[in-house]
Amino acid sequence: MTRASLDKQPHEVAAMFDDVAAKYDLTNDVLSLGQARLWRRAVAQSVDARPGERVLDLAAGTATSSLPFVEAGAFTVPCDFSLGMLREGKRRHPWMPFTGGDATRLPFADDTFDAVTISFGLRNVSDVDAALAEMLRVTRPGGRVLICEFSHPAWAPFRTVYTEYLMRALPPVARRVSSSPDAYVYLAESIRDWPDQPALAARLQQAGWSRVAWRDLTGGIVALHRAFKARNPGEPVRAER
């Protein structure tokens, strides 16, 4: 079994997700106590895909996260760098245009997509700033990005309880339901190591995104960050709360 390190070497992360592909969606539902479905619904509402739009879903895995955009009528490209995830997704949804790709070097032309989204994947990228810049490059002017990622509960007592769950309860539960429980030890460590909501918002601004805003889900266990690509090159970058 493969467990990636917090250095997030791409081959280690890809191999780790190859190992968990078959039971990935089920395991997430169990470990999140059913919240994962609510988070996916919130992502779909925030992306607000429209008929005829082009949506790039990064770290799409088996394309569970992509289906709401397809159902909304958008042409949707599920993209991932785990071949195991792509194979499992293609087995389930053979009609979808699964594409292999690294978030730091996307295989798409400039200004291609109306919306780019990534759910629970940015945390696993080796160079987050390069990925944010690549997302900006492939988004059309006026288009949007939506990032759904684990974050940090704002209320200190809840944050303490949540951290205890991550480091003590999550690995034993993962051993019961996952095909590669060591991957979920990495999951807990990477969540604890991830920047908080304002820090990620600042990195989006530094990458050139405008109108950066976020909202918390489940008390801040997860945060949705949304931003837009300026329509004009000289448009100022600014934040919203």
Automatic annotation (TrEMBL):
Task performed by this protein: Methyltransferase required for the conversion of demethylmenaquinol (DMKH2) to menaquinol (MKH2).
Residues the record lists as binding S-adenosyl-L-methionine: T62, D80, D102, A103, S119
Catalytic activity: a 2-demethylmenaquinol + S-adenosyl-L-methionine = a menaquinol + S-adenosyl-L-homocysteine + H(+)
Entry's Gene Ontology BP terms: methylation
Keywords: Menaquinone biosynthesis, Methyltransferase, S-adenosyl-L-methionine, Transferase
Pathway(s) per entry: Quinol/quinone metabolism; menaquinone biosynthesis; menaquinol from 1,4-dihydroxy-2-naphthoate: step 2/2
InterPro entries in UniProt: SAM-dependent_MTases_sf (IPR029063), UbiE/COQ5_MeTrFase (IPR004033), UbiE/COQ5_MeTrFase_CS (IPR023576)
Pfam families in the cross-refs: Ubie_methyltran (PF01209)
Top-level taxon: Bacteria
Species per Swiss-Prot/TrEMBL record: Streptomyces iconiensis
Family listed: Belongs to the class I-like SAM-binding methyltransferase superfamily. MenG/UbiE family.
This protein's name: Demethylmenaquinone methyltransferase
